[in-house]
Design brief:
The protein has 16 helices and ten strands. It is of the alpha/beta class and 439 residues long. Strands 3-2-1-4-7-5-8-10 form an eight-stranded mixed beta sheet, sandwiched between helices. Strands 6-9 form a two-stranded parallel sheet.
Length: 439
């Protein structure tokens, strides 16, 4: 009983229950209008649906106002002119997102309609809760104009600015060898330029590095190019993928074989800027466990991104943000850096394909490793063909996202790493690189 009482104190639980009551009221009204009142023509049924939705929205508003978000301002201007219109926009926006974005996208990706519906309901509920908590029912008089963090999602939304002093107190030694892992499949037209540009920049800046290229059993002249690169530069080496073919397996092979204290995952097609690799190295030296780049923040840049892939990318990342309550908005991008202890701490790695790019950062966040985000530049490949097939990968991305989400919800912290600082809460830190944002 004490557990249930404690659970009931959570605002998110009361929100879900109140939404269930409103949904039941909606169904009851539809039954009364159609079966009892006889509104059984097409026009009348649509009218009954509109009225039922509006009345159930009003009921849910009252329930949330009295029961979930208690207190606050009850002036008629505040309620009628601000809260009710914002609440309608919140609920309507959630429905529009579900009907016109989430359902069509997941249907196109081949996700079953049952799973599709459940995901749509979940995302709509999370979005409605966040907007209601942070905007609709916020008491402007008592909050000094600041949006407060949603109760029940405080951990996900906590934003801790991590200072240099914080980093120096962690038990992190400097990165004495920085590994660059590059999976490559049929990249004879790109790999030499990619490796040479990275090596030249790191040499110029005195960064101790190794470049490890994983040849994913290429059928062109990639391996011959790699042999020449490794002979010309002793810091460059390559291995042949000893797993089955595929981007995820090739990357897992590289994560098994790298020698450094930290590793950056870089694409073979020269889409990732070498200057950003250097930024990753310096941020790791500040003490962060992970460095996550974003192409879609101030200071970031995207060049020649195919429009259809860009739309799918933004929707997929929005979906991940809503599920996990993240401010970080470029989870699907492979170009990230991790300390060795992070790679060891997020094993076993499950993904076989490009969904590995989502598994690594989400597991790092859920398991409590600190990370910093920084703007990066991305440019579409100039040679070769992209290996990513969006339609084939949709269900695989969804699987790994839901897998990590279940770990977060149900594992009770069994896989979280112990906090390196006794005085720090055991939650992931999220910051933004001020050095790049101020350029």
């Amino acid at each position: 009983m004490r557990f249930l009482e404690k659970l009931w104190q959570k605002r998110a639980i009361r929100f879900l229950f109140g939404g269930g009551v409103a949904a039941a009221f909606n169904l009851l009204l539809m039954f009364l209008f159609i079966e009892v009142a006889g509104w059984d023509t097409t026009v009348l049924r649509n009218a009954a649906n509109i009225i039922s939705i509006e009345l159930s929205l009003l009921l849910s508003f009252v329930i949330y106002r009295l029961w979930v978000w208690r207190g606050g301002t009850w002036g008629w201007r505040e309620v009628l002119l601000r809260q009710l219109p914002l609440y309608h926009l919140s609920a309507g926006g959630s429905v529009v997102l579900r009907v016109f974005a989430i359902f069509p996208l997941l249907d196109w990706l081949g996700v079953s309609y049952g799973v599709n519906t459940l995901i749509g309901v979940l995302v709509s509920a999370v979005l409605n809760y966040i907007v209601s908590d942070r905007l609709v029912f916020r008491d402007r008089q008592s909050e000094d104009g600041q949006l407060y963090r949603p109760e029940g999602l405080e951990v996900a939304f906590r934003e801790e600015k991590k200072t240099r002093q914080d980093s120096e107190t962690e038990v992190h030694s400097p990165v004495s060898l920085f590994s660059i892992v590059i999976p490559a499949y049929n990249e004879e037209g790109s790999i030499a330029d990619t490796v040479t540009a990275i090596a030249n920049l790191l040499d110029e800046n005195g960064v101790p590095y190794e470049i490890l290229v994983v040849n994913d059993n290429s059928r062109d002249g990639t391996e011959a190019v790699l042999q020449g690169l490794s002979q010309a530069n002793p810091r460059v080496r390559y291995v042949n993928n000893h797993y089955p073919n595929g981007f995820g397996f090739a990357l897992r092979c590289g994560l098994d074989e790298f020698h450094g204290d930290a590793v950056a995952i870089v694409m073979a097609d020269a889409s990732d800027a070498p200057e950003d690799i250097l930024t990753y190295y310096h941020l790791l030296q500040e003490g962060y466990d992970c460095v996550f780049g974003s192409r879609f923040v101030r200071g970031g840049q995207v060049i020649d991104y195919p429009s259809h892939k860009l739309v799918v990318n933004r929707l997929a990342n929005l979906f991940v943000q809503l599920l996990f309550g993240l401010r970080y908005n470029d989870t699907t991008n492979a170009f990230k850096a991790y300390r060795r202890e992070v790679i060891e701490g997020i094993r076993p790695i499950l993904s076989h394909h490009f969904n590995l790019t989502v598994e690594l950062p989400l597991k790092s966040i859920v398991r409590g490793y600190s990370y910093v985000t920084t703007p990066i530049r991305w440019q579409n490949r100039k040679a070769g063909v992209s290996k990513l097939k969006i339609k084939e990968m949709g269900s695989r991305y969804l699987f790994i996202v839901l897998y990590v989400l279940l770990e977060r919800w149900l594992s009770r912290g069994d896989y979280r790493r112990p906090s390196p600082l006794r005085s720090q809460p055991s939650t992931p830190a999220e910051a933004v690189s001020s050095s790049k944002q101020n350029r």
